[in-house]
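Technical annex, item 7. During the second reporting period the consortium partners agreed on a shared format for inverse folding records so that results from different sites could be compared directly. Each record opens with the tokenized structure and is followed by the designed sequence. A conforming record, contributed by the partner at site C, is shown below for reference.
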């Protein structure tokens, strides 16, 4: 049986897209992926590189964020807009809240023994601070080396979803989030959860915040109790590319930018990059129209920009949607 989210007209009116992945939530999902070996093609290189860079102390985070099951509540800061904000919230967690969360978390472990070191969490502020520092260390080595790529993929996905909602309606947006595990049967959204959770959730007019996730590539994550609004993750569209370059490949690509820029010094290609940056998610036809060139020329220039790491292309059905990467935006900003 699936988990069913029931929508009213008020819920649909308040349902919205988040601007991008939430840092602590993305780290939570990534740490789970590191502990199991699924999707080796998509995440194998990232997993190997990350595990080599991580300190052994990260195992304390693995204890509190297992591959499946619940995260210890005081680490759940999915609503934090930045990683620094999430870390400050962890460090400032009252001792009584930690003890309550750990008791609740212990009850969810279904008779699995609690890690002995966790017994001091509710009374030792230095241990809590060290755990926050470990989360910062994990983010630095698991997420940060790939942040440009994550940002580019997220912007492209945002453009795709916004176009879908604008042109085809909220029905199409909800139906296309993750068809294998998120099924829209109006007025109910059916979820297949990794935990196998089932039941009925009524949003009671609060709507739903839809949060994209690069690491949450399969099963959705959900918090129906989040304040001020319940949230649900969906996978960033990755139909035409692997989610990451290796950090060494990224450095090599960035070092090649001066050579790539030699091909961008012409007026037309500069106009194409400017157009993509100012019309994120534009199709090749729209790109050609805005830039005043033929579709064939627009496609050729977009290919050069994509190869140079200055733009990203996402496919929606038979349509290519173009978005500038962080490197492309930086180039335009510096030129300006």
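Designed sequence (site C submission):
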């Amino acid at each position: 049986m699936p988990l069913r989210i029931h929508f009213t007209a008020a819920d649909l009116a308040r349902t919205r897209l988040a601007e991008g992945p939430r840092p602590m939530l993305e780290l939570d999902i990534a740490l789970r992926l590191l502990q199991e070996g699924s999707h080796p093609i998509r995440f194998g290189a990232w997993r190997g590189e990350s595990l080599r860079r991580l300190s052994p102390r990260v195992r304390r985070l693995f204890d509190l964020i297992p591959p499946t099951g619940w995260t210890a509540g005081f680490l759940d800061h999915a609503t934090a807009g930045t990683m620094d904000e999430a870390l400050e919230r962890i460090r400032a967690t009252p001792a009584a809240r930690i003890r309550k969360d750990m008791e609740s978390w212990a009850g969810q472990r279904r008779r699995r023994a609690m890690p002995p070191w966790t017994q001091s969490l509710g009374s030792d502020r230095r241990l809590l601070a060290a755990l926050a520092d470990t989360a910062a260390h994990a983010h630095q080595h698991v997420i940060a080396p790939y942040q440009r790529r994550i940002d580019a993929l997220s912007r492209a996905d945002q453009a795709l979803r916004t176009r879908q909602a604008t042109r085809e309606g909220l029905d199409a947006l909800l139906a296309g989030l993750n068809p294998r595990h998120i099924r829209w049967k109006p007025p109910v959204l059916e979820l297949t959860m990794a935990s196998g959770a089932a039941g009925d959730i009524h949003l009671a007019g609060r709507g739903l915040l839809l949060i994209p996730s690069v690491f949450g590539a399969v099963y959705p994550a959900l918090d129906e109790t989040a304040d001020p609004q319940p949230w649900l993750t969906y996978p960033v569209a990755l139909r035409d590319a692997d989610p990451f370059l290796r950090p060494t490949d990224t450095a090599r690509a960035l070092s090649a930018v001066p050579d790539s820029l030699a091909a961008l010094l012409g007026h037309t290609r500069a106009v194409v990059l400017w157009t993509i940056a100012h019309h994120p998610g534009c199709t090749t036809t729209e790109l050609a129209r805005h830039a005043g060139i033929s579709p064939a020329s627009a496609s050729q220039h977009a290919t050069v920009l994509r190869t140079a790491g200055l733009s990203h292309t996402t496919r929606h059905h038979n349509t290519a949607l173009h978005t500038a990467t962080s490197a492309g935006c930086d180039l335009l900003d510096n030129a300006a």
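Residues 245-260 have pLDDT under 50 and may be disordered. The two ends are 56 Å apart (CA to CA). All partners now use this format for quarterly exchanges.
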